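Troubleshooting log. The previous run stalled partway through. Resubmitting the same two chains, unchanged.
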Amino acid sequence: MGKNVRLRKGFDINLAGKASPTITTTDQPDVFAIKPTDFQGVYLPRVLVNVGDTVKAGTPLFRDKKFEKIVFTAPVSGEVIEIKRGEKRKLLEVKILADKSFQHVEFRKYSAGDLASISREEAQEQLLASGVWTNLIQRPFGVIADPNETAKAIFISAFDSHPLAPDYELIFKGEEQFFQAGVEILKKFTSGRIHVNLRGDKQSSIFSGTKGVEFNYFTGPHPSGCVGVQIHHIDPINRGEIAWTINPFGVIQIGKLFLNGIYDTSRIVALVGSEVKTPQYYKTWTGASISKMIENNIKSGHVRYISGNVLTGTKIPADGFIGFFDHMVTVIPEGDYYEFMGWISHGFKKLSTQRAWGLFSFLTPKKEYVLDTNTHGEPRAFVQTGVFEKVTPMDILPTYLIKAIIAEDFDEMEALGIYEVIEEDLALCDFVDVSKHNIQALLREGIELIRNS
Amino acid sequence: MNFLRKQLDSVKPHFEKGGKYHKFFYIYEAIDTFLFAPNTVAPTKGAQVRDAIDMKRLMITVVIAMLPCLFFGIYNVGYQHFLAQGAEASAGEMILIGLKQVLPIIIVSYAVGLGIEFAFTVWRKHPVNEGFLVTGLLIPLIMPPDIPLWQVALGTAFAVVIGKEAFGGTGMNILNVALTARAFLYFAYPADISGNVWTYLPEGTEVVSGYSGATPLAVSYEAAVSAKQAVVAYEEAALLAAEDPTPLNQAVAEHARHLADSLNTGHLVSDALANTWYEGLYDFSNMFFGLIPGSIGETSTLMCLIGGLILIITGVGSWKIMVSVLAGAYLTALGLNQIAGSNEYLLMPAHFHLVIGGLAFGAVYMATDPVTAAQTERGKWIYGFLIGFLTILIRAFNPAYPEGVMLAILLMNVFAPLIDYYVVQANKKRRLRRATAV
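Second attempt completed without errors. Output:
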């Protein structure tokens, strides 16, 4: 029996610029890129291609020096046009000019009935070789799953509760058979259950018909859709245990890899945010450049493009690429302005979780806000207490965890539950912090300290 | 505003790294961020939008919540001044007298505190914290209206240097800074902060006959002492009558018994409060509204409640702490009423405890200081309740010092980390048990 969990803590940031449920297919971008920086825990990527090489969808582009089996592959077919490096020759992007001939590396194809008889080794080899493996994330730490481990359970959050998040019911519609096939493959990698977590207040879901999984239902504000929060309430991770998480998109890719024998990265992404003229969905492939989408579609010049959502996303340039795990691009105003006596002005346009701003915001609960990237204040000492706890629907004390990380106290970090969280689970703490710390960055520092100890 | 911004921008390089005034960077930063919310943006990775609230907004909200107490306090200083003289005066005159007494105290408190804060900013290289906006107003509100200004300066300096900066500045201090100032003055200059100092009466002022500057706590304490003396007298007379049962001794014993009985009925303290030099001065309702002698800002329970409401509605102050302090005090007083007998002071009706002294002020503005209070949500309940409990214990059992809330809060400030320690420990244990249960 799955669980039915009602969460009360959390906060929904109601932003302007929701995507209308239309999917556009025209005007595909020419350039695609894979960014090693999208993946946590990649030690040292070694490039396997040269500029000018022709690649197919599924051709390895680079691999991690430490985990040689894990390869990162081309999302589309075409020509490698640039290998972009940053400081100290850190690999940033491998760019491919798409040839639009849709050539794929051939992998072994199975019928739906054969999936059950595939051995774990066979499945693993195909997943690793195709690059689909990189969709599997290991908890603790939120890094790419180690192929030598077996997960105690696999968790799939089948909805996204982030601000302006795409509707999974829309973007994964029609892919149910691949999702089912993906689940069949995943079963070989866990000794426990596969959990599919659905929104508790929705009657039906395209994932409801999936067989061989356990359904759990979550109601409440964000971060109810964060898989880490869900795991905490279903089957929490203790020291020494390993669980895997995967986005429904990854499950569908596994299904396509085994049923169709190809690495099919076609995906639907949402272009959203207050600065987008017509927020809607676009059908494209993994690693797409956003330049075509935003052409003549942005209201003002001074904006920030974010791959992902406003809580956990990454700033990208106007000709940047959508991250590997992202199904949305958010465009909001850049906030690099001074505001005269900003701290004492009235608060009708600003959003706060606290009523010291926007005393009467409860009168307009459905109001959509246009938020910019201004931090609205400067870093200060930790003073106010209890704010992190209000947006963390877990039996975890974020203030103490963060302080343990700052003090680099390994025992405390472990005892206070660092194994149970990654950045997205505590992203709201970043948002609400009165003292304007970068909580997510701090948390990652702590996770890396523990992981490398 | 553009002109101002340009001026700030033009001097900014001097304060940045390599500039000749880099030492004073944080002073520049304090002025700059006071005038303009900064143009900093969210980092490349992580939350790209941020809550509109910042430390300045938080602190100014607390200051706003203190204004009812301040305004009422200014009026009350004048009101008490004229009441003691038995003189008629308009509200305007009262406010003028109040302003004349209170404003210098506020100015001294802010000037000394901010001066030290800025000096430490340069010396210890940490940003100026907005916390002193609150502390600087809290200190005047808990001072007697007659306090010499040099004592305000000394107390503030002691509190900021020893109470805060010695621990590393705002956010690191263990004791409530404003209460540290008050406690320092109380123990260093007891004559100026106890006794008949609660009404502003310059030397040579004529007072009405029968006037006493005693606070309700002092009055009720006096009453309690006389009740206790009556009981002792009866016991002695009874003993004498038993040893030497002459009719006279028996009559004396009988009379002493009547007296002690009548005092023992529990109305003594409230009777004493009702029969002061000015009729109705220490009525429950009068004490609730706060037209009584006392520290500048803490006499009015009503104003504290309004301030508390502002803090609770805006979410800036912890309602858990406020409620648990008052609940702790009320329940303790109620409990003491039950076991009263030997100590007449225990007979003070429980609801009187809530409106006299600084309990309400302490509960709303002092106990809720987030830095020195318990920081865990569960800990806040325990912390608040114990403050209320200790306040009443000190009031009832420590005749040397009738007001207990200051010491109770300071004591619990010290114990708050311990309370948190056990709450955090419980969280860790739940996690550990979960790991070993399967």
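Takeaways: The first strand of chain A starts at residue 4 and ends at 6. The longest helix of chain A spans residues 439-451.
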